Recover the amino acids of this structure.
């Protein structure tokens, strides 16, 4: 080793030592956080390899026999592939179509309220369901929508028709699911738009009023453009989750009678993997789901950056 | 906000605008009723006389008769009691771990002079876009020996990446001068975090405690897949049995079949009320911090 290199190495080592001395506490602090992510986030990613294996608990993830894309071809060729993909996409589609605009509309209406107390009360009440557990929400739904529930009682007294066991009828499932989602999240979802609205410069409105702009014109030309970037970013994030219909609520509400319209990717993975211990196959379905999601999020973000200059990154 | 600006409301309102205003207020009132009524119905049903409730069809505008039988049954039920206890345990331990790790992570990632922070940030944020999914996570948790273990309820969700980013953003906004003063006095990073940064971050920390605690209070899925013994079940998992599997008979053993059906309806509602009330009590106290918490989170990481 030549002298120059030695000096350079020494300098490097010295700098490293200085860096460690200065930041030793930060490293100590971040260590448990990194360990958490390694064990509970990255180890499962490493575990995705069992999508290509016949996982046997006794052999472990590494030693289980490699089977290539067997699970994927089995899934794509199965009757379930089309069903759960269609259900997942349709539920998401309805949820975006009706559930995405709902909090925006609520925020716009709230923003027009002059009575601060009234406005705050509405907000307090509508945020509430967001904090109530899915189990309780679904418990109420099952009770209210049952044959003896009050929904049927009202409908029969109004229309005279025989009661329907709503949650046992496949045709009703998506509507009930999306409707109750909106009921639960509309208030909470409006917070972000309300704060975007409050960030719009008041002078624009004053100038518009002096020019004689009606409230409708102010909405179109000031308010909506003012919150457009928030809307676009929220839409990107929502579309990026289009394949993620959370299993929790579906699991609580569906029955074998409604699998036809209610069974989604996440519930299918749960049944195949957790209930039937078909680990390799269920992991393959899950991996397919995550991969599509990942590609989707990146494409939507790219598209939005080109079209509107708004993007997540 | 423009309409609340009193100065500019000199323009007289046309009658068309008044109708629009009235309509909007009406829509909001309707929304409030639709949001609250399900809870009110459950409250009335839980206080109703069991026999009257079973025969009743349609909406309730007051309790039918008055009876606390359903609550009595709930509070005497050993499964509900043990579920409550377990949930409290998971909630307290879980939230403590959540807060400790989130504070540590957020503090380190908010130090601008700390070079590796961008790499660590990437390492963390990547998991928001891609993850192993249900089955591999389940197998890892099982393989490291957490199956049917207390720690399966508190460790797999020990950090919410979203909360970590929210807290980091908020810590970045704290002026450096505070930290520098402490550093001159010879404080190390632990002291700075716990004695300087945390005391000035109380608002956002309060929201974070609420988010984590409500998450633990409401969680049932992890308990369902990771716990085997009923004695370890949290309240939500017990609730799921009571509300969604029609197994109220297990709570009313000893009574004749008909009697158990009568009590059953009321028990469902009283269990729901009992399990919702804690959230209803904590939530309004922290409401004023929500907007801040949600907003900071929306700022690009």
């Amino acid at each position: 080793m030549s002298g120059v290199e030695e000096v350079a190495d020494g300098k490097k080592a010295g700098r490293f030592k200085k860096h460690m001395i200065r930041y030793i506490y930060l490293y100590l602090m971040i260590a448990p956080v990194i360990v958490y992510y390694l064990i509970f986030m990255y180890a499962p990613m490493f575990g995705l390899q069992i999508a290509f294996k016949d996982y046997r608990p006794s052999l472990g993830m590494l030693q289980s026999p490699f089977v290539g894309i067997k699970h994927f071809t089995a899934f794509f060729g199965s009757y379930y592939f089309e069903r759960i993909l269609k259900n997942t996409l349709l539920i998401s589609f309805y949820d975006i179509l009706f559930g995405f605009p709902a909090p925006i509309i609520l925020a716009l209406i709230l923003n027009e309220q002059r009575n601060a107390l009234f406005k705050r009360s509405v907000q307090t009440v509508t945020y509430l369901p967001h904090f109530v557990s899915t189990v309780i929400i679904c418990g109420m739904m099952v009770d209210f929508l049952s044959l003896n529930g009050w929904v049927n009682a009202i409908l029969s007294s109004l229309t005279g028709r025989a009661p329907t066991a709503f949650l046992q009828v496949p045709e009703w499932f998506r509507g009930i699911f999306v409707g109750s989602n909106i009921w639960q999240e509309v208030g909470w979802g409006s917070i972000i738009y309300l704060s975007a609205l409050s960030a719009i410069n008041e002078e624009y409105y004053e100038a518009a009023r002096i020019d004689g702009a009606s409230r409708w014109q102010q909405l179109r030309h000031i308010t909506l453009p003012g919150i457009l970037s928030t809307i676009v970013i929220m839409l990107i994030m929502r579309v990026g989750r289009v394949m993620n219909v959370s299993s929790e609520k579906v699991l609580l509400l569906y029955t074998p009678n409604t699998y036809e319209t209610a069974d989604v990717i996440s519930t299918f993975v749960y049944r195949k993997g957790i209930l039937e211990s078909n680990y390799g196959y269920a992991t393959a379905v899950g991996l397919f789901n995550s991969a599509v999601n990942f590609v989707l999020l990146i494409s939507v973000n790219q598209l939005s950056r080109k079209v509107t200059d708004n993007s997540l990154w | 906000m423009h309409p609340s600006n009193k100065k500019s409301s000199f323009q007289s309102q046309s009658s068309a605008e008044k109708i629009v205003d009235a309509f909007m207020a009406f829509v909001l009132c309707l929304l409030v009723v639709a949001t609250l009524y399900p809870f009110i119905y459950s409250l009335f049903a839980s206080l109703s006389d069991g026999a009257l409730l079973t025969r009743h069809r349609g909406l309730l505008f007051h309790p039918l008769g008055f009876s606390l039988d359903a609550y009595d049954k709930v509070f005497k039920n050993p499964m509900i009691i043990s579920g409550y206890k377990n949930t409290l345990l998971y909630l307290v331990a879980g939230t403590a771990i959540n807060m400790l790790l989130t504070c540590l992570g957020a503090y380190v990632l908010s130090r601008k002079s700390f070079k590796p922070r961008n790499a660590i940030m990437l390492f963390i944020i990547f998991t928001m876009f891609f993850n192993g999914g249900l089955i591999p996570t389940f197998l890892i948790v099982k393989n490291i020996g957490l199956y049917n273990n207390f720690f399966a309820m508190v460790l797999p969700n020990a950090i919410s990446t979203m909360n970590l980013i929210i807290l980091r953003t908020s810590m970045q906004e704290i002026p450096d001068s505070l930290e520098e003063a402490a550093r001159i006095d010879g404080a190390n990073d632990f002291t700075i975090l716990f004695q300087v940064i945390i005391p000035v971050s109380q608002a956002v920390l309060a929201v974070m405690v609420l988010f984590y605690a409500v998450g633990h209070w409401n969680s049932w899925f992890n308990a369902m897949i990771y716990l085997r013994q009923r004695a370890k079940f949290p309240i939500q998992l017990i609730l799921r049995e009571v509300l969604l599997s029609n197994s109220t008979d297990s709570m009313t053993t000893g009574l004749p079949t008909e009697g158990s059906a009568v009590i059953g309806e009321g028990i469902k509602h009283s269990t729901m009320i009992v399990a919702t009330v804690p959230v209803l009590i904590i939530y309004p106290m922290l409401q004023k911090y929500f907007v801040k918490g949600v907003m900071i989170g929306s700022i690009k990481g």
Notes: Residues 70-308 of chain A form a domain with the MetI-like fold fold (CATH 1.10.3720.10). Residues 11 and 17 of chain A are 10 Å apart (CA to CA).
